[in-house]
Amino acid sequence: MLLTVEGLTREYVTRFGGRRVPALRGVSFGVKEGEFVAVMGESGSGKTTLLTLLAALDRPTDGRILLNGQDMAAIPGRALAAFRRDRLGFIFQDCNLLDTLSLRENIVFPLVLAGRPRTEMEARLLPLTGRLGITPLLEKFPYEVSGGERQRAAAARALITGPALLLADEPTGALDSGSAAQLLGMLDECNADGQTIVMVTHSLDAASHASRVLLLRDGLIADEISRGGLSRADFYPRLAARMTALQQGGARLA
Amino acid sequence: MRDRLLPRLAVRGLYGSRRLYLPFVLATGFMALVYFVIASFVYNRSFGQTVPNGGNIQLLMSVGYYLMPVVLLPFLVYIYSYLLKNRSRELALYAILGLGRRHIAVILLIENLLCFALCLTLGIGAGLIGCPLVFRGLLLALGQPGGLVWSVSAGAVLAVVRVFAACFAVLVGMGVWRAARTQPASLLREQTQGEKPLRGRLPIALGGAACLLAAYALSAISRDSATLTSFMIALVLVILGTYGVFTGVSAEVLRCLRRSPRFYADPSAFVVVSGLQYRMRKNAAGLTNICLFGCAALFTLCCSLCVLFGQDAVIARAGQALAEGEVGLNTAHATAQEIAQMFTTLAFLGVFFVLVFLACTALVLYYRQLAEGQEDAGRFRILRAVGLSDELTARTARQQLRVVFLLPLAGTLLHIAFASPFLAAFMGIISIDTPLVLFGSIALAMATFSVFYLLCYQVTVRAYLRSIA
Q: CB–CB of B103/B6 below 8 Å?
């Protein structure tokens, strides 16, 4: 297993009254190397909390996250930023590109932080941007390009360090359907090249690109669907059916 | 419903942005205090009658009395425009929720009335406690201990109310005009576009440098005659020159830094340089303001110290000259005392203005830091998410602030160093011409100002770090 999540729990304490609100209530799953896993769920199901914990941007109340057998909780705070930088790549919903940097500078930024030589930056940059089709835009600033181009630059930034795990938080959330399809196609290609991906989304279309889908509900994994040998076109309706069943079942329970 | 809702919105608005308004109210309160003290001297009838030569002292004080509103208003307008910009989202939201322009005007009016009331309470309240002390102090310094007791004069209170009411009225008008002119939707939209790269960096930098050189040259050749005119011209040149140099030179330097290979080798330089370049023009305007307020404070401080340290020699010389002449010894003594009193009053007034200018400098510095912090908060959030460690974040932030806020200090010190011939010419008018006094005062004033500036910087850095945390 590349990533192992065991009994992951995260509670938030309300500011007044100290009431404990659980966002995740003991989530366990594993991700094998080369897998493309999507986590689906409604708003408030705990998706974002899960991703924040996987990204080591927050610490769990209980439970463990192991990446390549290494317990994230055991990493001291000082080394956490370097761990995030070297081992994980992120694609955020709102790109999170810095408006102060050109696309080129944005993309190589993790390498600058890591103190890599300039030649290595260029050597890694061009093949990546060539594949993503943004090489002609490298000198432009984020506010000068389209949303889809911004998101592709963000993907390039996430991939340039060659991360063990690529985390994507609603990567298509702010994109039009054409750009979304293009980005998902790019993720498929990366995955075909062996990149392990965990993507959080509430879009059925995005999730149908994954090889396995976890359905998150009220802080628990309510269901898990493997794509098996199905094509995307066949996987989509099955996924939709399971989602509907889960929601209606839940409604009956409530 | 309406007459309850609007005051409540106004109070909520003020309380919600208390971090912005508290320094504003404190500073205006302080200025009201200073103005109250000066006005108290001008309006105290018995002062002119009891204290020998009191009429002349009052006349000198009234110069400050008329000058201060002139300094006060532009400063308040500058600060308030910053406050308004920060509130624009809130005001836009009110407009979208269905409040008319008239309602927003009422809200702004109530807010300013509250600030006005607080400012007066603070200023006059502190004045009632502080004035007797200042009064005693000045009388002591004038060699007139005892004799006169300070009393509240209605005229002074009214003068403060009048001046500050007028200032706040201008601010309300400004707010209403601004609110009426802007479209709510455009206010809500986030402003994320960078500035266009500055065209003509070189001409601007060279023009600025030329202005500064011309101003310095004017100072160097200044003689007693026509000094005031050339000082005014130099003042305008310095304002233009400072802005030009801060804008043009910094843009050019940043561009070169960004092109250098070292840019990619140092993460914090990478962040700092790109961040500065992103909004250099706005930065330059802010830095110029800080620099100019600093210059006003420092120049006034130099003058006050010169008067303070130089007066003894002048008085002794005048006394001697008079005694050698035809007048009797008694007359000579009285005249020397008169001169001494004028000097004391002058230094006294100077110190008040120094305090006002220092308060201005501190406040502008504080708001500049807050503004930077707000603009950088989003940037640092992304940087941390991408893998900038907390330690490096703090170091980068501090490095950026150091670069930005040491520039105005350096500018101020440089300007004042070159303004020393002007200072000498001005002091020559009142016969203070000992080089030791002149340069000693300048050195002491520079040291004092630098310490004050660095202290303010340290305090305001916290405001910045808090807003990016």
A: yes
**Among the partner residues B192, B274, B388, nearest to A113 by beta-carbon distance:** B388
Q: What residues have CB less than 8 Å from A51, skipping those under 6 apart?
A: A39, A167, A169, A198, A200
Enumerate domains of chain A plus CATH numbers. 3-253 (3.40.50.300)
Q: Give me the count of residues in chain A.
A: 254
Cα separation, B306 vs B300, whole angstroms: 10
Domain boundary assignment for chain B: 1-189, 192-469
**Does any CB of chain B come closer than 8 Å to the CB of residue A82?**
yes
The ipTM (two decimal places) reads 0.77
Closest-CA distance, A148 to chain B, in angstroms, reads 18
Q: Report the candidate in A123, A124, A103, A112 with the shortest Cα–Cα distance to residue B262.
A: A112
Q: Mutate which of B196, B264, B375, B380 to disrupt the A interface (most A C-beta within 10 Å)?
A: B264
Q: Which residues on chain B are in Cβ contact (under 8 Å) with A105?
A: 270, 274
Q: SS3 for A66?
A: strand
Tell whether B391 lies on the interface with A, counting CB pairs under 8 A. Answer: yes
Exposed, middle or buried by CB within 10 Å (0-12, 13-18, 19+), for A153? Answer: buried
- Cβ–Cβ gap B270/A98 under 8 Å: no
pLDDT by residue (tens digit) across B63-115? 888 888 888 888 898 889 888 888 877 877 787 777 777 888 888 899 999 99
Chain segment A93-112, per-residue pLDDT in tens = 888 888 888 899 999 988 88
**Using CA atoms, how far apart are residues B31 and B75, in angstroms rounded to an integer?**
11
Of A97, A112, A143, which has the smallest distance from its Cβ to B267's Cβ? A112
Give the full edge-to-edge strand order of the sheet including A70-71: A20-31, A3-13, A62-67, A70-71
